[in-house]
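Researcher: Quick one. two chains, 544 residues in total.
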Amino acid sequence: MAEEKDRIIETEVQKQFRLHEPQIRPAIEYTGEASLKFWKDIINILAIIGEIAEASWFAIRNPRRIRWRETLFYMDICGADALPISCMICYLMGLILGFQASLQMHKFGTDLYVADMVGLSIVKELGPLMVAMICTGRAGSAFAAEISTMKVSEEIDAMVTMGFNPSRFLIIPKLLALILVMPVLTVFGNVLGIIGGMTVGVFSLGLPVITYFNRTVLVITPRTFSEGLIKSAVFAVLIAAVGCLRGLEAKNDTHGVGSAATSAVVSGIFLVIIADTLMTYLFSRF
Amino acid sequence: MAENNAVPMIQAIDLTVGYGDIVVLENINFTINKGEIFVIIGGSGCGKSTILKHLIGLYEPIKGDILIKGESIVKADWDEKRRIMKSFGVLYQSGALFSALTITENIALQLEEYTDYPEDEIFRRVNEKLKLVGLEGAGPKMPSELSGGMKKRAALARAMALDPEILFFDEPSTSLDPVTAAMMDRLIIDLRDRLGTTMVIVTHDLDSIYAISDRVIMLDKATKTIVARGKPSELRKSNPPPSVKEFLERAGLSRKMD
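Model:
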């Protein structure tokens, strides 16, 4: 009898532990569940973008009500602190591109076109994209972790019962900061990326600095330059929105904080790539 | 408190609360009068904090209505809800001070947002609230620099920033040492006596219940209803159900030990 009881208890204990074991589920069930989650995610992202639009409209009509002190704080964190790493990554990216392009161009005796290749790639695509990746990793995850921690410590509840709109209080300063600093970081990134390409052009291909510079200035038109900056501003909205959304929908526990930060980075990168594809197509059409 | 002169501040009408499909409490009715210290008691998991979160408008009830000064917080849209929320302050279990702001900034937040006071007037009012809770000089500190008891008092100062007519407390003495908990009890009584504020307190701290409450209701997890209501001293004398008796006798034991 006692043995039977022990066996039942043991089974119950095993069941409890099994909850934390990886579950093997039929592929169709998993696919269905993932599809529903993805769809729900899209709706949530659209909802938060709508909420941001509403809060932004309020901020435009009442600029004095914007929390400028917080905005400056986030500008410092997302901009000034991210500048060295953004510049370094973009310089290395220009260097890599320059090397790869020089190997191919040299075969055809068109060394000078390395400047075209590096300049256009960096300004139109890689500059905004690399800065967006760095900001997703730094700012997006930080926003998600900050907001989810505030949720765990009841700060969001306190904000609501104080009559404050969490979107306006939490999202707008972060969004505004990213929109203001990401294009600036992109400009710095572009310059360093071009210098990276120039390093290869000058030291590896033996091109004169002024020739490389003139060629770069020739191919980078104001329109090309603006396209990169527009992309950068759109990426800023997406990174801030998804970072804040992941924070707001996090579970009220420590695991939830970690998951929110991870999810903010993964979703942020995914959305940035999707938006980049769409914008590249649109800019090529018009 | 004379019941016939009572002015209802909060009314819960046929209230059913829960999360999603899970019903925590069913058909709850009670009225809280002006200037009363009303305590909601019960064992762990009986729905004390849940009902509080519904009373302050954080969650929508499954059924029923909640009236704050005669206005429904359930049916109100966001702007109306915001106006109703300005008439009360909430002290959360953890204090819920904004960790990125100093104590002064935490208290000044609502004053900056809802009033046209100049900066020096806001500063004066913040210091007045800090003095009221015995935290003079703590304004420039960050919440992380304060002890648990100080955080709760700072949070109380923030909850009182707009001089609300109602204050809600979620487990005010939890995680406080007995001396600080008793100090918090004295502070609550003092504030009610001085300012006439209506206090709604969720707790299972038995000493606090006896020390401060004008009236209590006891919630029960099994029946999902109110199993007892009245003054705590009267409840003990009135042959209450076994669960209530056990709860209150433990209070007796605790008091005998003092």
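The beta strands of chain B are 8-19, 22-33, 37-41, 63-68, 71-72, 88-91, 166-170, 198-202, 215-220, 225-230.
Researcher: Thanks, that's what I needed.
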